[in-house]
């Protein structure tokens, strides 16, 4: 990038500027394009942005500091598979006022940076007051304490997300802690989640968990069960190798195991089963979900377990449906950002019964 252009880009930092996912940019008219199968994004996803990017170094993340020497170089704009360009907060607010009627929510994603707490409160306050839409915050626990959560609620946020990501303390430590030069701690993340439930209320905080980081199905389901037992829920992701991450060569897991995880999450979060009721094989794969045949078949045929899990909109349905954030648009979808059709249900019905 030419030096003059780079200097202009460095002026685009939070709180005056925020990065938008490609889907959000398309929805607000900043970018052109069409959604595969006419998917519609219900939540405007915003990402804080600073020179030097995130100060953590998670192995699976495209924002890891060691991989982003120059985050404002266009080739480094990709994150969660798509580009995240920076736009002025003022313009985001104005365009949201005329957004399609299926846009029900904002989500502010923090990063591990000294300015992130202050800027998140500023952005949240403006979004709530100037658009009237509810705001979720995907928080950065490492730089936070209980008071920060209280401040976020007072700024108008109605929901909190805690991206624990890894299913076990060992995987968390190896991919997010000292072995990769990262500052994050497993116990602190769960502590912030517990505090967020006390402050925002049961059912108003959730954890993010990623399938495919080296855990077994049983281990991930135990983490989902723990989140539910504490009073919240799980937003589920399938690992996708990010181009500029340390795990760029790590393969994406097959859909088969992810289908079983999706079903387990849906049944657990719906209060229909628990991890302790399920049966697993010697590789930790689900053999039985601990529900009767009628309950299982009804869930499977509805297709709902395989839709994206995220914060709801005013209609009670998932607003944060993140179209194609886990995979390229096409037949191999992991999180469906729309209601499944009969062919989709036939596909996931076959996949959930397959064992690699």
Automatic annotation (TrEMBL):
Q: Which domain of life is it from?
A: Bacteria
Entry GO MF terms: catalytic activity; iron-sulfur cluster binding; metal ion binding
Q: Which residues form the Radical SAM core domain?
A: 38-281
InterPro entries in the cross-refs: Aldolase_TIM, Elp3/MiaA/NifB-like_rSAM, rSAM, rSAM_sf
Annotated TM spans: none
Please list the cofactors this protein needs: [4Fe-4S] cluster
Does this UniProt record's set of keywords contain Metal-binding? yes
Q: Does the keyword GTP-binding apply?
A: no
SUPFAM superfamilies (UniProt xref) = Radical SAM enzymes
Could you tell me the keywords of this UniProt record?
Iron, Iron-sulfur, Metal-binding, S-adenosyl-L-methionine
**Gene3D superfamilies from the xrefs?**
Aldolase class I
Tell me the protein's name.
Radical SAM protein
Task: Look up and give the organism this protein is from.
Answer: Dethiosulfatarculus sandiegensis
């Amino acid at each position: 990038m030419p030096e003059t252009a780079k200097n202009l880009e460095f002026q685009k930092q939070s709180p005056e500027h925020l990065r938008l996912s490609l889907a959000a940019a398309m929805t607000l008219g900043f970018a052109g394009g069409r959604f595969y199968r006419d998917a519609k994004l219900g939540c405007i996803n915003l990402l804080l942005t600073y020179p030097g990017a995130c100060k953590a170094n998670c192995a699976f993340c495209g924002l890891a500091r060691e991989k982003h020497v120059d985050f404002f170089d266009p080739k480094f704009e990709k994150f969660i598979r798509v580009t995240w360009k920076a736009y002025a907060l003022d313009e985001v607010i104005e365009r949201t006022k005329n957004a399609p009627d299926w846009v029900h929510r904002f989500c502010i994603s923090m990063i591990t940076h000294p300015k992130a707490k202050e800027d998140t409160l500023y952005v949240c306050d403006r979004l709530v007051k100037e658009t009237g839409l509810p705001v979720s915050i995907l928080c950065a626990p490492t730089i936070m304490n209980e008071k920060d959560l209280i401040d976020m609620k007072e700024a108008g946020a109605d929901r909190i997300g805690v991206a624990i990501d890894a299913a076990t303390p060992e995987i968390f430590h190896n991919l997010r802690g000292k072995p990769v030069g990262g500052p994050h701690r497993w116990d602190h993340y769960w502590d912030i989640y517990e505090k967020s439930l006390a402050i925002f209320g049961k059912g108003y905080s959730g954890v993010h968990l990623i399938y495919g980081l080296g855990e077994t199905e049983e281990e991930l389901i135990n983490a989902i069960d723990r989140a539910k037992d504490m009073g919240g829920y799980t937003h589920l992701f399938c690992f996708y190798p990010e181009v500029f991450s340390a795990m760029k060569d790590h393969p994406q897991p097959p859909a088969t195991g992810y289908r079983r995880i999706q079903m387990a999450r849906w049944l657990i979060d719906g209060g229909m089963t628990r991890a302790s009721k399920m049966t697993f094989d010697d590789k930790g794969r689900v053999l039985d979900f601990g529900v009767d045949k009628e309950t299982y078949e009804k869930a499977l045929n509805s297709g709902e377990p395989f839709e994206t899990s995220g914060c709801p909109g005013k209609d009670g349905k998932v607003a944060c449906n993140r179209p194609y954030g886990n995979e390229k648009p096409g037949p191999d979808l992991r999180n469906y950002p729309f209601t499944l059709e009969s062919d989709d249900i036939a596909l996931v019905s076959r996949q959930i019964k397959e064992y690699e």
